[in-house]
Amino acid sequence: MRQDDLDAVKKYLATNFSAVRARNDYGWMKPALNLVDCVLSLNRPYASMVLPRVQTLARRQPSLISLGDLSDLIQSSGGGGPFLSEHLDYNDKRRGRTLEGVCAYFQRVADAQSDATEAERLHRWAVSVGPQDYLHVRVPGFGPAGFQYFRMFCGVQTVKPDKYIVEKATELTGHPVSALDAVALFEKAAASLNLPLREIDAEIWSAGSGGVVVYGTVPDCARGETTPTRSAKDFIRQTVAETGQFVMAAGIAAGYKEVTLKTALSDLKNPKYCGSGGILVLKQVGGGMYVPA
Fold first, then answer.
1. DSSP per residue over 218-262, as a string?
2. What is the average per-residue pLDDT within 33-45?
3. What is the pLDDT of residues 74-117, one digit of tens each?
4. pTM of this prediction?
5. Residue 70 near residue 103, CB atoms below 8 Å
6. pLDDT grade, residue 169 (50/70/90)?
7. Closest C-alpha to 161, from 141, 178, 139
8. What is the pLDDT of residue 228?
9. Cα R_g (the chain), whole angstroms
């Protein structure tokens, strides 16, 4: 790792993300849903394709919590491909095989430890390995980006080397950077600045995909034009109760015609709903209007 490369990444992080804070509500709070999200989102549009499918799965299968639960549901469906078709309205046999293989691998990882909860065991595993350990998974279609994303779901402060991270590392250093080298650069730079890299990754992804990440505040230009027929607060309460995830709840509320975006965004200021780490990913669609990214 060249010192000038590291210095360039440190300067970028310090300049743009010094106010970013770590969150304790990252992900779906259920290992099964985290893994589905992780595998389904690889090289796929998140807001339009992944998020609504995981939301539907969470609503229809409220008892789907552990990787064992997910494995049982996959097997009862006849395999990964039929599972995607039956439960996620998504026909992709190859992605189904990836999900089935990855689920089996991480279930073995979790089952190798007998104490604590599955989430705690997965966290302990995630902090004990590094980005290069994706090679041990050996499931077609699941590379370093997926491996890193699941580690992030398990609580590790790192980045996933998707195109946004790799392109940013290449831009900052002025030369091509591999996926694993990009992770190493960002990890070392963030650690030296004591910045939460997982949350920074979310902001870099949002900026690269045309969205805006809002932490506990509302952009002045965000407005809604419809008249609400249902309280956004009530909607968010219900969705949090069903899924345990405020991030997704705010996104749904902002996307529903019955709830104004302005009303939904206002709840981000209320610690009762979002806490200090409230987050909503938006994209600008023109005319000062934002919609969920």
1. --TT----SPPSS-HHHHHHHHHHHHS-HHHHHHHHHHSTTS-HH
2. 91
3. 999 999 999 999 999 999 999 999 999 999 999 999 999 887 88
4. 0.73
5. yes
6. very high
7. 178
8. 36
9. 19
Of 281, 253, 264, 278, nearest to 223 by C-alpha is 264
Which residue's entry shows tokens 């902090």? 127
User: Who contacts 220 (Cβ-Cβ below 8 Å, separation ≥6)?
Assistant: none
Contact 160, 170 (CB under 8 A): no
The full set of domain ranges for the chain reads 3-22+160-209, 31-153, 213-292
Residue 55 has which token pair?
């939301």
Q: What's the pLDDT score for residue 215?
A: 39
The beta strands (E) that lie in 59-203 are given as none
Within a 10 A sphere around the Cβ of 112, how many other Cβ atoms? 9
Amino acid at 54: V
CA 160, CA 255: separation in Å to the nearest integer? Answer: 27
186 pLDDT tier (thresholds 50, 70, 90):
very high
Compute the C-alpha angle 283/147/55, nearest 5°: 45
